[in-house]
């Protein structure tokens, strides 16, 4: 399996491609990473160094990959933090180029916009670009609960509301929607839910809620869900596998008291999760 992954990258720590590439490789996937930024560390530290790349660089690198004659063997494209609407447009051009060579290619879009704690943290124009252009192009969409609301203008306080918001997104293009973290009215205070909608059904996995706040977990789960879905064709199976792996990763990270997710040290969790959780149709 070959995945073209276009997102941010950091030298120290694990967000963007630095959180997504190795877990996919550990699952036996060949990954072609294209970086939208090259930062020293993630911006949560308050200070960082390094450049933001422009759309022309993205186009140039993807064109070079195409010139190797390998786009027909690309099984999926994964995108995350975009940096600008112009970079988003270059990513969708890359998706179109890959689909022209291999119509079966999946496009998984992690619509990074913000979260409950920080609100919207991307540049102006990105949220609108994702709503209007990326969502209709995506096969798989992986918002968090905050992003689900921004993309649909719908509430998701209850499970029924969340299911309706998922269906509203699917009606605009994506066949599968994964909500990477959901706290609904029936979610126990010591738990967190992950929801996946596909083919008119919604599935839920409930895991213990860990006392941890780190960056990169969403990037990791989007990558793992994409790989498992591409291999099985089942959102239910992909949800169970990805949720188990990310829970194990975060549990190890919490136990170590690390500010960065233990992407490498906890690698066994990707192939042999230490805990699994039931997947239920809701």
Automatic annotation (TrEMBL):
InterPro entries: PM/HMP-P_kinase-1, PyrdxlKinase, Ribokinase-like. SUPFAM superfamilies: Ribokinase-like (SSF53613). Keywords: ATP-binding, Kinase, Nucleotide-binding, Transferase. Gene3D superfamilies: 3.40.1190.20. Its EC number is 2.7.1.35. One of its GO terms (molecular function) is pyridoxal kinase activity. Residues 74-258 form the Pyridoxamine kinase/Phosphomethylpyrimidine kinase domain. It is an enzyme of class 2 (transferase). The keyword Transferase applies. Signal peptide: none annotated. The keyword Transferase applies. This is pyridoxal kinase. It comes from Methylobacterium longum. The lineage of its organism: Bacteria, Pseudomonadati, Pseudomonadota, Alphaproteobacteria, Hyphomicrobiales.
């Amino acid at each position: 399996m070959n995945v073209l992954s276009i997102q941010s990258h950091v030298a120290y720590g694990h967000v963007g491609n630095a959180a997504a590439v190795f877990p996919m490789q550990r699952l036996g996937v060949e990954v072609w990473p294209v970086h939208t930024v090259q930062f020293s560390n993630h911006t949560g530290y308050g200070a960082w160094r390094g450049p933001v790349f422009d759309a022309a660089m993205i186009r140039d690198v993807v064109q070079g990959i195409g010139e190797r004659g390998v786009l027909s063997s690309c099984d999926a494209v994964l995108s995350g933090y975009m940096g600008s609407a112009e970079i988003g447009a270059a990513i969708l051009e890359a998706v179109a180029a890959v689909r022209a060579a291999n119509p079966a290619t999946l496009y998984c879009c992690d619509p990074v916009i913000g979260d409950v704690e920080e609100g919207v943290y991307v540049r102006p124009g990105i949220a609108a670009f994702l709503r209007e252009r990326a969502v209709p192009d995506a096969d798989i969409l992986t918002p968090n609960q905050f992003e689900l609301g921004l993309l649909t203008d719908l509430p998701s306080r209850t499970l029924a509301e969340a299911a309706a918001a998922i269906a509203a997104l699917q009606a605009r293009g994506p066949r599968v929607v994964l909500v990477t973290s959901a706290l609904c009215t029936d979610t126990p205070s010591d738990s967190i839910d992950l929801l996946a909608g596909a083919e008119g059904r919604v599935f839920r996995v409930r895991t213990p809620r860990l006392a941890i706040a780190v960056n990169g977990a969403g990037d990791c789960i989007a990558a793992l869900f994409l790989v498992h879905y591409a291999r099985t064709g089942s959102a239910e199976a992909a949800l169970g596998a990805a949720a188990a792996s990310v829970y194990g990763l975060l549990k190890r990270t919490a136990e170590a008291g690390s500010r960065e997710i233990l992407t490498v040290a906890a690698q066994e969790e990707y192939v042999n999760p230490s805990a699994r959780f039931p997947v239920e149709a809701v």
